[in-house]
From TrEMBL:
The chain crosses the membrane at residues 12-29, 36-58, 88-112, 146-166, 178-199, 219-241, 253-278, 312-331, 343-361, 367-388, 400-421, 427-443. It comes from Enterococcus termitis. GO terms for biological process: phosphoenolpyruvate-dependent sugar phosphotransferase system. GO terms for molecular function: galactitol transmembrane transporter activity. It holds the Pfam family EIIC-GAT. This is PTS galactitol transporter subunit IIC. It is a multi-pass membrane protein. The keyword Nucleus does not apply. One of its GO terms (cellular component) is plasma membrane. Its main location: membrane. Keywords: Cell membrane, Membrane, Phosphotransferase system, Sugar transport, Transmembrane, Transmembrane helix, Transport. It is found in: Cell membrane. It comes from the Bacteria.
Length: 472
């Protein structure tokens, strides 16, 4: 059964599985079959469009990033081989496959009994993040139940964080009644909210680095496509600095510039198609709630690719590439060399971006802290992940002593839970469970207040922008 489920995921992927789920949810919500099919088809078109444009963009930018790494001449022991390799490892272990089925059942039951208002099974693919940490624990301890306990508790933490951020993510990225639950990114929620509060107290919200303000101040140079072109050129120069005397270098510089501008221009159009799929379900849920006298508001988990190309998200992510690379080289004690997953940074900071309401200045600070913490977390756990990878048949790249995924393993919360469970100490494990229970009860009781706080902070950010614009 588990093998069949894995084969289905591998054969069809999110672009098919998610539309099927949306189709049946729409039917359950009493949407007419024709309209339900149209919504499902638009979801599939949107997801395919996201994957196509990101898939086409990555091979253009990745060589530039790799050249930046190579020209530093730094020889760190842990090489980032990308999230794709990590997912392969997660789907190749027995304990990981157990959770693929268990996670689907758990997430569905928790939603149906209203323990959570997040329907997480619609992003089943990203469960590989839980499967990865569970597999690492099992290889280290040979304790199956301890490993399953870690994966279940990690899932519960992620659902709480999703409850906290769901409304803000949905409003910022413009996907009605949807949220992002990717476990490797959702755990940045506590940092995102805490840093946004601190930076706002320090007046950082007055530094108006957001797409709207930049466009007002810079004119056509501040338009998303122009900003993308300029940033792409800068990235191209950084990756070709040592060979600017060649025609190939200048060709690559301009191609990266045009390609980044293309992302800025095309992505919103695809996002509009994708968002239209969920408008149907949102409208139907409102009618159902009204007829059933129910006030339940729930959110559908969607792939994190949905936010990748949003202007502030992509610009901040591209700016963080050289920052993270330099810090990886100079930080004492770090042994992690981010490489393949540097292009995935926009995924990693979506929650930070939406909490700051698109403030690039604040997001750069918070994103840097998140990534730096990830460098040290990976340095601590990479030996274990490498053992798991080797055991399932992964060949290490030439010259690499250990491997990792910068995007997936930059996860402060799940990494900490893994290290706690590694101790096999009942006291520490019990404490992590108690912390979860307290967090869950607090969010359950204060969820409306939390959502209101985040929306008020976002409005404050927006109003500061208006006031600054008028003042100038």
């Amino acid at each position: 059964m588990l093998d069949l489920l894995s084969k289905i995921m591998d054969a069809f992927g999110a672009a098919v599985v998610v539309p099927i789920i949306i189709f049946f949810i729409a039917l359950i919500m009493k949407v007419k079959p024709k309209k339900a099919f149209g919504a499902a088809l638009n979801a599939g078109i949107g997801l395919t469009g996201f994957n196509m444009i990101i898939g086409a963009y990555s091979p253009i930018v990745t060589p530039v990033v790799n050249r930046m790494v190579e020209e530093t001449g730094v020889n760190l022991r842990i090489l980032d081989t990308g999230w794709q390799a990590t997912s392969v490892v997660a789907y190749s272990t027995q304990v990981g496959m157990i959770f693929l089925g268990l996670g689907l059942i758990l997430q569905t039951i928790l939603f149906l009994v209203k323990y959570t208002n997040i329907f997480m099974p619609s992003d089943l693919w990203n469960n590989y993040s839980f499967m990865l940490w569970g597999s690492m624990l099992y290889i280290s301890t040979k304790n199956l139940w301890l490993s399953i306990g870690l994966m279940v508790l990690s899932n519960l933490y992620c659902l709480v964080f999703s409850e906290i951020i769901a409304k803000r993510w949905s409003n910022y990225y413009g996907y009605p009644s949807c949220t992002m639950t990717a476990p490797h990114h959702i755990c940045s929620v506590p940092l995102a909210i805490g840093m946004d509060w601190l930076l706002t107290k320090m007046g950082a919200n007055k530094v108006k680095w957001n797409p709207e303000t930049l466009q007002n101040k810079l004119g056509f140079l501040g338009e998303p496509t122009s900003l993308g072109f300029i940033l792409g050129l800068a990235l191209g120069f950084a990756g070709n600095f040592m060979r600017l005397n060649t025609l190939e270098a200048w060709g690559e510089v301009t191609i990266v510039g045009i390609s980044t501008a293309a992302i800025m221009a095309i992505f919103p159009k695809i996002a509009g198609i994708f968002a239209s799929a969920f408008t149907t379900i949102t409208d139907a849920s409102k009618k159902t709630a009204k007829s059933n006298s129910s006030d339940r508001v729930w959110f559908l988990a969607i792939n994190d690719a949905a936010g990748y190309g949003e202007t502030a998200t992509l610009l901040t992510g591209m700016l963080l590439i050289p920052i993270v690379l330099v810090l990886a080289i100079v930080l004492p004690g770090n042994q992690t060399l981010p490489m393949v997953d540097l292009i995935a940074i926009p995924y990693m900071i979506e929650l930070i971006i939406c909490v700051s309401n698109g403030n690039i200045f604040k997001s750069l600070i918070s994103g840097t802290i998140w990534c730096v913490g990830g460098l040290y977390m990976i340095t601590a756990v990479a030996p274990i992940f490498t053992d798991v990878a080797v055991e399932v048949g992964v060949n290490l790249p030439e010259g690499a002593l250990m491997i990792c995924s910068f995007a997936v393993m930059t996860n402060h919360i799940m990494g900490l839970l893994f290290l706690i469970f590694m101790t096999q100490n009942p006291l520490w494990i019990g404490l992590s469970v108690v912390v979860y229970i307290i967090l869950y009860v607090f969010v359950r009781v204060k969820k409306e207040s939390i959502h209101a706080y985040l929306e008020n902070q976002a409005e404050r950010e927006a109003n500061t922008g208006i006031m600054e614009g008028v003042a100038s």
